[in-house]
């Protein structure tokens, strides 16, 4: 029990993010210790060739610079499957071509409305940076698919087409398409892209086949020797990731990052130990819950992970 003593930080010039995280493991603290252990689990998961690696996250973080952390995970092929929400498609398309801006939680929302500016927390999204550009790019994409004879797509197929045709190299979807990493959006109609799909369907017999996505997820889970997941936030993307993994007796690795509370009984706030009772995470799984803002925690963790994985690759 009294084995590992707490050690003070020794901060120095030009130290790397990974140096800091390694010190967090010794300095311990509260969230710092969990963050350090979370990186160790992600490192173990990344190096496990038998593990199918899931990444689950909601859309709000894609409106921030944290989008770049997700992009790096996909670009460097550190994940195999993505489960997310329609808003991710919205923000990923929009920010490929337009800018969002820094704001404040305390801004006058009535004033913002008069200036056609939408507030997402402390991020400012002008109308021309959101609805207008998404409508333009999505309509262009759907018109092209229709002319090519496409009448039905799964969300997986749709996300790849968006990545190829409506995004650039700053985009999560661009790299997912480039590296053949499937992206699933079970709540596809809940967002601007989803609205454009509905609008297009009013004049075209165009359909989204969600059941094809479910068949692919079933095949991924049932053919995997092991599975692991980095689950950021909650909602439908978290539940869908856990839902499918219960059919193989649960994840072998699980890292949660969330600000949601446990006491309201929601899935978003549920800790990994609760998922064990549902057989969504294995009893013996490497798992941790990191409480905190992913816009702070995730870039630190991913930077440290990249250093460790690339160092190992060079050694090989």
So, the CATH homologous superfamily? Deoxyhypusine synthase
CATH architecture, please?
A: 3-Layer(aba) Sandwich
Percent strand equals 15-25%
Strand count: 11
Mean pLDDT score = 97
Task: Give an account of the 3D structure.
The protein is an alpha/beta fold and 316 residues long. The protein has one domain (17-95, 132-315): Deoxyhypusine synthase (Deoxyhypusine Synthase), CATH 3.40.910. Helix content is 48%, strand content 16%. The chain contains 13 helices and eleven strands. It has helices at 17-27, 31-46, 67-75, 86-97, 109-114, 131-147, 155-165, 172-178, 192-201, 210-223, 235-245, 272-277, 294-315; strands spanning 51-56, 81-83, 101-102, 117-120, 123-126, 152-153, 183-184, 207-208, 226-232, 251-258, 281-291. The protein has a six-stranded parallel sheet with strand order 7-2-1-9-10-11, sandwiched between helices. The protein has a three-stranded antiparallel sheet with strand order 3-5-4. Helix 1 (17-27) crosses helix 2 (31-46), helix 1 packs across helix 13 (294-315) and helix 2 (31-46) packs across helix 13. The two termini are 36 Å apart. The model has no long low-confidence stretch (mean pLDDT 97).
Which keywords apply here?
316 residues, alpha/beta, Deoxyhypusine Synthase, 6-stranded parallel sheet, 3-stranded antiparallel sheet, 13 helices
